C-alpha cells in the first residue's frame, strides 16, 4: 500500500488510538531473512499482522522479502537506505537515504511503502521530517514502547519489557535479525491476546 495521510494526526505518530484494543508491532527490517520469515510466520499463525520498516540495503540483498511481507498481509515501509544516523546527516545525504530506500520499495512492490521511520532515532529531526514529506510520506512512524531487543537481553526480557509498557494504541519497536525476538514472539502474542489486545498493522 501507498502512504496515506491521517487527518488530525501529527506529522510524527508515536501511538494509535488509546480507546481501541489494538497494538502495532513494528519491526526494523534487516538481518537474517530466515529469522524474518520465522517472525512473520509466527505472527500469521496467531492471526496477527505487523509493520516492517525495511532497510534499503537489506532489500537489495534479499529482494524476495518485500513480496513475502506484503503477501502475508503486513505493512511495508522505509527505514532508510543504509541504516545510518539520518538525523545527523547534511540535507543532501539524508534525502538520498530516504529516496534511495523509497526507490527500491517502488521497484520491488510498485509503492514507496506505507511509512517512513528514521534510522537510529525514535523521532525524525525537523529536516528529516520535511524530507520525508517531500519524498511522499505524510507521517513519520515513531513508537512509544521500545523492546530493547537489539541489546540481545534474551527472549524473556524482551517479553517483559514490551508487556510492561504496552497499552491500547501502543506502537512497539522490535527488530528482525535477533533470535531472542523470534523466541519471544509466541509468548508475547499469547499474552497480548490474554489482555484482549490484537496486533494489527499501522494502517
Task: Describe the structure concisely for a colleague.
The chain has 203 residues and is of the alpha/beta class.
Textual characterization of the structure:
By secondary structure, this protein is of the alpha/beta class. It has one domain (14-199): Glycoside hydrolase/deacetylase (TIM Barrel, Alpha-Beta Barrel), CATH 3.20.20.370. 41% of the residues lie in helices and 14% in strands. The protein has seven helices and eight strands, in the order E-E-H-E-H-H-E-H-H-E-E-H-E-H-E. Strand 2, helix 1 (33-45) and strand 3 (51-54) form a beta-alpha-beta unit. The longest helix is centred in the middle third of the chain and has 19 residues, at 91-109. The mean pLDDT is 98.
Helices and strands in order:
Elements: E1 12-13, E2 22-29, H1 33-45, E3 51-54, H2 56-61, H3 64-71, E4 75-78, H4 91-109, H5 126-135, E5 140-141, E6 145-146, H6 155-165, E7 171-175, H7 179-194, E8 198-199
Parallel strand pairs: 1-5, 2-3, 2-7, 2-8, 3-4, 6-7
Helix pairs in contact: 1-7, 4-5, 6-7
